[in-house]
Structures are given as C-alpha cells and as structure tokens.
C-alpha cells in the first residue's frame, strides 16, 4: 500500500474521506458524487489500545466493502489523549494494522474481472513532522513482513516442504545482509541431531535445519537467537491425528515463518545487532520408515528422548535446535512454536502462552505484547511439573503422564535442552507457544487463516533489547 502525506483533505472524487465518529459505521455518498466513510469508534474517552487496533483495521474492511481504493484520514482523529501514546507510536500502529487488514490470501483463487478488492493508497492528513512519517513507513515494513509470514504459513502442505521452506528463507534474505545455510540429513547426522532426524524419518521429504545469520552488531556482541518450529505438515505420525485435528496442520511451521520474517524485518529496519534465526524443518508423516511410539532418540545434547506419542513432535525437533543455539553464546534465546493444543484450551484464541523463568523478561514480553497487539500471557514453568516428563527408558518423555497441564509439560521438556552439561541455564530463554494464535480469531478484523504471530512483538524486541 502506498502512503502519502498532505496538509489538508484532497478534494478529488476518487479519494474517499474517512472520519472517525462516536456513532455507527456508515458509508455516505455525497451529493458531489464522492464517498465518506464514517468509522465508529464508540465513546472517544472509552477507547482502549486494543480497540484502537481493530478500529484501524475496520476502516480497511469498510473501504473494501465500498470498493474504494484510495482513502484519506485525519491523523489527529486517532489521537486519544488518555491513551498517552506518542504520535510516532500511533503512526507505526496505523500502518502496521492497515497492512494487516488489507491482506488476503488469494494466491490460489481466480482473479475476478474487476481485480482484487484492496486498498491501494492511504493519504494521511495533518501536520505530522518527519518523525511520524518515518514511523508510518517503518510500520509499513513490519506490516508487510507480518503478511509474508501469513502467506508462508497459509501455503498448503503439499507445496511447503522442508526443502521449499529452506529455499523460501534463502529467497527472502536475498539482497539483505543475511547468510542462509540449510543443513541436510548428512550434516545433521554428523552433528548427532537424532531428534530432528527421528521425527523426519517417516517422510519422503528430507528434513532441513535452516540457519540464518544477520550480524550487523559489533563482532564481539553476543547474538539474540530466534528458533521457530518448522513442521511443514503435522499428521501426528503413527499416532495419526483425526480428520478435524489434522485440518490446518500445514500451518505447523508458523513459528518458523515468524522467525524468518522477524529476522528479515530486523535487516530491513537496519537494526544494528547480531541476530540468528534457526528453523528445524520436518514433515511429520506415518509410513514404513516412521519413528514409533516407544522409540528412544538420542538428541544432539546427548540426552535421550523417549517417544510416548509421535504427535508431540514439535518439542523433539526443538530440543536439537535449543542445543545447537548454545554455540552462539546467546544473550537471549526465544523459541516460537505451534506447540500444544493445550495452550488453546488454557488461553482461548486471543493470546499466546509465555514461558520463562526470568521475571524481567516475562514483564518485558507482556508489555511488548500489549504495545504491539501480539498478546502473550504468562504460564508456569515450575519444577513441580518436571516429574510429569521423566522418562522410563529414556531421559525425558515427550508427553506428560496426565492430560492436564499439557502446555507447561511441553515447555518443561524444552527447558531441559536449554541447560548446559553442568545442568545450569546455558542462556536466558523465553518460549512462546503460539498454537492459540496460529489463526486469526473472531472480531479481529483480519482475513481467515494464519495470524502472523508474533512477528510484531519480535520486531519491537529486536529493536529495543
Ligand atoms: N502441532 C500440534 C499442536 C497444535 C494443535 C497446534 C492445534 C495448533 C493447533 C502439536 O504437534 C501436537 O500435536 N501436540 C499434541 C501433543 C500431545 C500429543 C501431547 C497436542 O497438543 O495434542
Ligand atoms: Mn503434533
Ligand atoms: Zn505439531
């Protein structure tokens, strides 16, 4: 989408004026043949940060429903003094959310004669200053990367294999100062990545371990490492999922897509830091060569994993990635994964689960969630739960003993692989279970399908951490 800036409302008929009113949403045709769209905000003094995001997005759906391609709005309509937001902050939120609302996944649909219905240009009216204009341009970049994450996650499983995911990472990094390497089976064997290789065995598609490095910081600066679950399709393996549960499992690489595009965002915003993204990519399939329930896998860390259920595959592949990350001596590791159905039960569809033992990081991530709209909510990561995942014939079992607390059991499993050989934390670590935010929810004013979480949160974190 194109953003232009103007001191006052343009008068051209093809430009639709957007006004924000306390009343209802209305589309008004003017006597002069133009259109005015009134976007209802509710009582202005009752506006909240969360509602501001959906109000901005609603403006796009109204413009689309009226078939308008160019709109103009007064920036100061979006200033709600009681929200204490800086104009730059509002500008960035404006373009991020306009981009997100304007996105639809149409790659596999026939183009209608009149073309796709989308906004092409937004004219932001008001005396803005260069800071706000810059913020709007920055928000555009972030919003576009969120949308690329959504496209990638939405791509059907038949067309998104580990190999294609690795190729996409390479293509997306082109022209940016990012180096991309994808380890294949032979290389993973040499590294002893028995966890990823175990999960990948049942598929005809070779697993890949994608490594992306963006080293724009000082040479001696410790990097931030992002890890994303890249299960390109999760059938459950021999513990096959039911039909309803298997639907949408092409999006089980949403964490991988998010970290790939968070890294690209950092590069496009020219953030001067060292950042690494790791994506273990596999397809979880049932076949004659699949790993079995009862198998014991030797992970890269040397710890063994007793497979109680082949459908708890995400934590297994992340075990090797969390261990691999140690070689970077990171100052922070964040993993992002559509890890458990249990987090959906715990939180519903509006927040991701946040797991960390670091209180400051917990506060910081929660605040970033509120700021960006990638809401995260803290979950326990306590020792008590560890007994649930103690293995009988291996070191750690990949599922808990009961049905309860599944998201925390999974997080505690991951935690084991963030420790060094002496049992100490190898790095500060945050785990985000985005299964609950895999797809857009009711009332969010977003197209059906992948939601692109938590790219906005990661972008802000990478900028400020
Ligand atoms: N990818 C799924 C989790 C998931 C479920 C993501 C729904 C998005 C929406 C994960 O691999 C899985 O299958 N988890 C199992 C674990 C269980 C076998 C312990 C689950 O949550 O049922
Ligand atoms: Mn699974
Ligand atoms: Zn999965």
Description:
This protein has 465 residues and is an alpha/beta fold. It folds into two domains: 2-147, Leucine Aminopeptidase, subunit E, domain 1, CATH 3.40.220; 160-464, Zn peptidases (Aminopeptidase, 3-Layer(aba) Sandwich), CATH 3.40.630. It contains 13 helices and 18 strands. It has helices at residues 49-65, 87-102, 129-154, 162-173, 185-191, 194-200, 243-246, 254-268, 314-324, 341-347, 359-372, 406-416, 455-464; strands spanning 2-6, 15-21, 26-29, 35-40, 70-74, 121-125, 179-183, 208-215, 224-228, 230-234, 274-284, 296-298, 304-306, 332-337, 352-355, 376-378, 396-397, 429-433. The strands form three sheets. Strands 7, 8, 9, 10, 11, 14, 15, 16 and 18 form a nine-stranded mixed sheet that branches. Strand 5 (70-74), helix 2 and strand 6 (121-125) form a beta-alpha-beta unit. Helix 8 packs across helix 13 (455-464) and helix 11 crosses helix 13 (455-464). The longest helix has 26 residues, at 129-154. The structure holds ligand BES, manganese (II) ion and zinc ion. The site of manganese (II) ion has 4 residues, from loops.
């Amino acid at each position: 989408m194109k953003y232009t800036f103007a001191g006052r409302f343009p008068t051209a008929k093809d430009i639709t004026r957007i006004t924000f009113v306390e009343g209802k949403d209305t589309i008004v045709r003017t006597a002069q043949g133009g259109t005015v769209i009134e976007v209802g905000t509710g009582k202005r003094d009752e506006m909240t940060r969360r509602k501001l995001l959906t109000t901005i997005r609603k403006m796009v759906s109204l413009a689309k429903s009226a078939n308008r391609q160019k709109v103009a709005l007064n920036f100061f309509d979006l200033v709600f003094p009681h929200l204490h937001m800086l104009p730059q902050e509002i500008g960035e939120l404006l373009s991020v959310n306009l981009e997100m609302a304007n996105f639809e996944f149409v790659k596999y649909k026939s183009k209608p004669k009149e073309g796709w219905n989308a906004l092409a240009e937004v004219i932001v009216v008001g005396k803005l200053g260069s800071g706000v204009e810059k913020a709007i341009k920055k928000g555009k970049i972030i919003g576009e990367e969120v949308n690329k994450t959504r496209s990638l996650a939405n791509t059907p499983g038949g067309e998104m294999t580990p190999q294609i995911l690795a190729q996409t990472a390479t293509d997306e990094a082109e022209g940016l100062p990012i180096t991309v390497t994808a380890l294949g089976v032979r290389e993973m064997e040499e590294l002893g990545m028995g966890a990823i290789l175990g999960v990948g065995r049942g598929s005809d598609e070779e697993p890949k371990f994608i490594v992306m490095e963006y080293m724009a910081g000082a040479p001696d600066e410790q990097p931030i490492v992002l890890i994303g679950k890249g299960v390109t399709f999760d059938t459950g393996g021999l513990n096959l999922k039911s039909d309803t549960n298997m639907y949408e499992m092409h999006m089980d690489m949403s964490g991988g897509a998010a970290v790939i595009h968070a890294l690209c965002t950092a590069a496009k915003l020219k953030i001067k830091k060292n950042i690494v993204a790791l994506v273990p990519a596999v397809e979880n399939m049932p076949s004659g060569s699949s790993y079995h329930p009862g198998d014991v896998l030797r992970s890269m860390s040397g710890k063994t994993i007793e497979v109680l259920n082949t459908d708890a595959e995400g934590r297994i592949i992340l075990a090797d990635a969390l261990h691999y990350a140690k070689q970077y001596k990171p100052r922070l590791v964040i993993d992002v994964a559509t890890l458990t159905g249990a987090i959906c039960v715990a939180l519903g569809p509006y927040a991701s689960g946040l797991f960390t033992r670091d209180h400051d990081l917990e506060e910081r991530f929660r605040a970033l969630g509120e700021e960006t709209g990638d809401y995260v909510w803290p979950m326990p990561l306590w020792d008590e739960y560890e007994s649930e995942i103690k293995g009988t014939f291996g070191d750690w079992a990949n599922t808990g003993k009961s049905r309860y607390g599944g998201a925390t059991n999974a997080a505690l499993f991951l935690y084991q692989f963030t420790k060094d050989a002496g049992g100490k934390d190898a790095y500060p670590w945050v785990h985000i279970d985005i299964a609950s935010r895999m797809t857009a929810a009711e009332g969010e004013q977003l197209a059906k399908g992948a939601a692109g979480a938590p790219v906005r949160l990661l972008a802000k974190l990478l900028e400020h951490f």
